[in-house]
Amino acid sequence: MHDNLGLQIVSCWVLSQKGCFKQRTRISHGTFRFLCKKLSQFVEKNDTCIRSNISVETRIAVSLCRWGTRNGLLLVREVYGIAECRASCVVKEFCKVVKKYFIKSFSPIF
Length: 110
Fold this sequence. Notes:
By secondary structure, this protein is mainly alpha-helical. It has one domain. It is 74% helix and 0% strand. It has 6 helices and no strands. Helix 3 (29-43) packs across helix 4 (56-69), helix 3 (29-43) packs across helix 6 and helix 5 (73-80) crosses helix 6. Mean pLDDT is 76; it is low at 1-10.
């Protein structure tokens, strides 16, 4: 089972390195916080008996890293400490949430 504390430490370390953070996600830290606040109710997950959850911040950072840099899931795994298959699922879920809930609030065309 994944150690959730380890994920939080990796996430906090990545978020504290603002220069590296912007390079990985292509957005400012303020914009990232805005996205976390707006999307947290849609991307937050609970722990299960099989595995611990991935924090909202890590989910959004992984997705933005994948979108912004087009880096492979192997690099995402190394940076954020989650398995490639979980990173892939996180990115897919994030895309669905953005399409369904977030884009409509900023663009009435969709």
